């Protein structure tokens, strides 16, 4: 590997690390805006349900790379706050599927719209093609991570990797 290539990966790691740290702080703040008793991790779970739901709790475990007990606590918290609904799984009546409640979806939509408007404001001097390219590249990076997580799940490894 060339020095230039190595430095590119060093910078990538540094910038993604910074992005993730900021993301965790923002997620915690957004959770508080969504509901004063909501924690940041549960906010992420609610957002995933909105984007990919309805899902079983076991699906959340796999997609988030968390253990069952953590997901169970987050689901219980979201249900207690009235932000998710549970229903019988149409494929297996013994299991439950989770979806955002009307209230949870409405609150999440308000926050996401404000966040999108903030991105639009912050990146207003970027060419639209750069914004589109950034979205495409982040999507590719996310799909790579999802594929890696799915591979780990099929190999029976359930502990999240850095």
Automatic annotation (TrEMBL):
HTH marR-type domain boundaries: 9-143
One Pfam assignment: MarR_2
Keyword Transcription carried by entry: yes
Keyword Metal-binding: no
PROSITE patterns: HTH_MARR_1, HTH_MARR_2
Superkingdom, taxonomy of origin: Bacteria
Signal sequence region: none
The entry's keywords: DNA-binding, Transcription, Transcription regulation
A single BP term in Gene Ontology: response to stress
Gene Ontology MF terms in the entry: DNA binding; DNA-binding transcription factor activity
InterPro entries for this protein: ArsR-like_HTH, HTH_MarR-typ, MarR/SlyA-like, Tscrpt_reg_MarR-type_CS, WH-like_DNA-bd_sf, WH_DNA-bd_sf
Transmembrane portions of the chain: none
Protein name (record): DNA-binding MarR family transcriptional regulator
Species per Swiss-Prot/TrEMBL record: Petropleomorpha daqingensis
């Amino acid at each position: 590997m060339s020095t230039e290539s190595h430095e590119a990966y060093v910078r990538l790691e540094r910038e993604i690390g910074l992005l993730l740290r900021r993301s965790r702080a923002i997620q915690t703040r957004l959770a508080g805006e969504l509901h004063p008793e909501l924690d940041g991790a549960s906010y992420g779970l609610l957002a995933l349900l909105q984007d990919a739901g309805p899902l079983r709790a076991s699906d959340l475990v796999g997609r988030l790379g968390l253990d069952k007990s953590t997901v169970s606590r987050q689901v219980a918290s979201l249900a207690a706050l009235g932000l998710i609904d549970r229903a019988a799984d149409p494929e297996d009546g013994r299991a439950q599927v989770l979806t955002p409640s009307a209230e949870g979806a409405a609150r999440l939509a308000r926050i996401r719209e404000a966040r999108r408007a903030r991105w639009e404001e912050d990146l207003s001097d970027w060419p639209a093609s750069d914004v589109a390219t950034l979205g495409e590249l982040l999507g590719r990076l996310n799909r790579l991570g999802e594929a890696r997580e799915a591979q780990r799940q099929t190999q029976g490894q359930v502990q999240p990797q850095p």
